[in-house]
Amino acid sequence: MWFVYMMIGNVLWSISDVWASVIINRVHKNPIVISWFFGVIDLVLLAALSVYSLPDLAWIGWLAFASLFAYLGMLAFFFSLSRVDVSVSSAAWVFMSIGIAIGGMIFFNETLSALQIVGVFMSIGGVLLLMFWHQHVSVFRTCLILGGAGFLYVPFFLIQEAVLLGGASPYDVFYLNAFFHSILTVGVPFLVPKYRCEVLQLASRLPLRRFLSLIVPRSILGLLASFCVILAYKTGYASLVSITQNGQPFFLVLFAWIATRITPKYAPKELLTTQSIGIKILSFCITFAGLSLLVIP
Questions:
Q1: Angle formed by the axes of helices 92-107 and 60-81, to 10°?
Q2: Among 48, 203, 208, 262, whose Cα sits 20 to 30 Å from the Cα of 165?
Q3: Rounded distance, CA 212 to CA 208, Å?
Q4: Of 239, 231, 1, 228, whose CA–CA distance to 119 is shortest?
């Protein structure tokens, strides 16, 4: 069941990432400023959820610490969206999955079968092929940007897995992660005068109804994706679940293409020449074949 949860999470995160890229291109280029608005809407949605069910606070300290890494990873990933193609930016999850897989084997005594190990290398290899083919982008600079974003998420997911194994419910982990992450996205910009001014200026000049129509759906998608990912980590090995996150490029290219058709001016940066599409299809086929091996015991 973990594989189904993770693939649903991949679809939702891909839509959310493309949506965020459109917002960044259309509204404001600074991800710290845009994330402030995401955080406010997330807090409103979480407050609505709390009316129905409050989370258990037993693991509040660890999850608050983990959320700091998720916040830094989010900023690094948003930064990458303005520098490389949206599908190439998903290579950040290759670095993340490598770190989580190693952590899962060290801290949680996870083991993989021979076929699963082959699947791991195929999944990672397919995404790396996609990233390194883009010669118009500096390989070293791309690795630096995406590696930073990916590795920042590793402590977040390892702590999350430890808390789940310790007996926390998926809802408690989801709620507290989202809450602290939102507190950081709202609070940090107001500690820096430059960002505080940008947030206030942007808030004052944007049409509220139109802006909310952009922000609210992205927040809902992000929260739903987070919950699906937590369910996957609850029911599967952290190492396998993290590798499965490399399936995102399949959906990212699809939704980026749809966004290009709907709003070409503000669509995510994505190279869609004949040669580019051919390379992406090849790399995605390799990745998909690898992912299929991961579900074999």
A1: 150
A2: 48
A3: 6
A4: 239
